[in-house]
Amino acid sequence: xxxxxxxxxxxxxxxxxxxxxxxxxxxxxxxxxxxxxxxxxxxxxxxxxxxxxxxxxxxxxxxxxxxxxxxxxxxxxxxxxxxxxxxxxxxxxxxxxxxxxxxxxxxxxxxxxxxxxxxxxxxxxxxxxxxxxxxxxxxxxxxxxxxxxxxxxxxxxxxxxxxxxxxxxxxxxxxxxxxxxxxxxxxxxxxxxxxxxxxxxxxxxxxxxxxxxxxxxxxxxxxxxxxxxxxxxxxxxxxxxxxxxxxxxxxxxxxxxxxxxxxxxxxxxxxxxxxxxxxxxxxxxxxxxxxxxxxxxxxxxxxxxxxxxxxxxxxxxxxxxxxxxxxxxxxxxxxxxxxxxxxxxxxxxxxxxxxxxxxxxxxxxxxxxxxxxxxxxxxxxxxxxxxxxxxxxxxxxxxxxxxxxxxxxxxxxxxxxxxxxxxxxxxxxxxxxxxxxxxxxxxxxxxxxxxxxxxxxxxxxxxxxxxxxxxxxxxxxxxxxxxxxxxxxxxxxxxxxxxxxxxxxxxxxxxxxxxxxxxxxxxxxxxxxxxxxxxxxxxxxxxxxxxxxxxxxxxxxxxxxxxxxxxxxxxxxxxxxxxxxxxxxxxxxxxxxxxxxxx
Length: 599
Hints:
The chain is α+β, with helices and mostly antiparallel strands. It has helices at residues 3-31, 34-43, 85-92, 96-109, 123-132, 155-158, 166-171, 185-189, 191-195, 236-245, 282-290, 314-323, 356-362, 365-376, 385-398, 420-426, 450-462, 498-511, 569-582, 588-596, and strands at residues 44-49, 56-57, 63-75, 115-121, 139-148, 161-163, 180-182, 199-205, 211-214, 230-232, 251-257, 262-269, 338-341, 344-347, 465-466, 472-475, 489-490, 525-531, 539-546, 553-559. The chain contains 20 helices and 20 strands. The strands form six sheets. Strands 2, 3, 4, 5, 10 and 16 form a six-stranded mixed sheet that branches. The protein has a five-stranded antiparallel sheet with strand order 12-11-20-19-18, sandwiched between helices.
């Protein structure tokens, strides 16, 4: 190669290298904003602003849940610089080991995203820290709201919020570490409506960790949108009254407006003050409540506890017998004082012949054992006991038992209504109506929830249909109804078959076991019950609705270990009816006796 050619080759190589450097510099300085972004990260901070959670009102516009401001200390691990660890430990009353542990946790979550470092600081501590925050680069304060309950009632219904779980962080991009979410009750069911939408601020921060204003006049900012307010179906004054009546007792009260399915009060006792599960002491208080194995205050007896319904279940069996034409309103069965099964007798305190109306009035065990037996053993209609029992079970399921209502209160129990396969296994295929006859009087293998029994009363009050029981009636605005509930659910019982049952329930209140629970000026239909309890004294049970002609309220009460239905549950239910329909109590002596009763 000639010398001139070598010169050209060298010059070409040098020109190529120079061109590469020029292009690279152009891309770095003009075409690639990586380093610009890195520089911005040193002076810009993105702050997610938590929206105010939606308020909750009762049916009469009383505020039952609202928000108080509170302050979280946040940390961005990437922005941390050297700082006086002992100084911040003194301010937060924290050991250095705990400080380092929390920083490691934040860094593991994300070096670049803000993490919750110290939640729910008091206003006093926030004031102290705010003055010295410039000393701690990488730390900043987030303002958000804390739930507050002006009346310490309805804890199970309202529910509580808590820190979001790791599983939710992985499955829902809305939440970040340290965010709060509804854990139970209304707070859980209506979390999407209550939580609102987060806002965002991009601010400039100087070397002293102090905000110097919005970036680019706030062009990237987003205002937080508060959560929607909810109007619940509760009458909070009735709820408060019900909880007062159930003090020092175990059990529940469920009251429903039958025409709408709206829950007027739902009491689970013992309960707790919902304010206990708010603030920095929430974890400690929760542990105390969980460990209370005697009272189990976190256990929602109205929705989760299952009991033998006792004689109140006779109402359902009477209706099924009428629909199946096993009896009519004039059919009379004789009662010799009990129902005989071989050497065993199911005793009855009544003796004599009764039709269905009279059987409801006197709660005749013999009558309802016979109609249940004849229903499932009707060989003119069903070839086998399994077929007859399955038909009965279909009716019972249709009346709301053995299933959930898919209501807007979470963790609802189905209760227990066994299928025929269960009894085939239990009796090795050899069983008959007498093997399960105790279910005809609400004993044996049948177990129900208080909510299910209250709904049965709503079906009877409505003479053949119900609206799914629910707790929220409006979302966003009071005139914006909750359309999830409202369609009537018809049951497979003819409307006129409810009349003799209702007439019998009326007689219960005028000349039967419920006469001591009458309310002056209000015509009521009721049914007492005593649910057998293998672990101690029987449970006291009472169902009623009022007024008979145009029912406005149904009530179911179960008091554990209360004994006869007429002794405890019936007076409580009648006081609930009186309070709701009259808005006053005209029997102060009865009220005082019930409030002071301890079981």
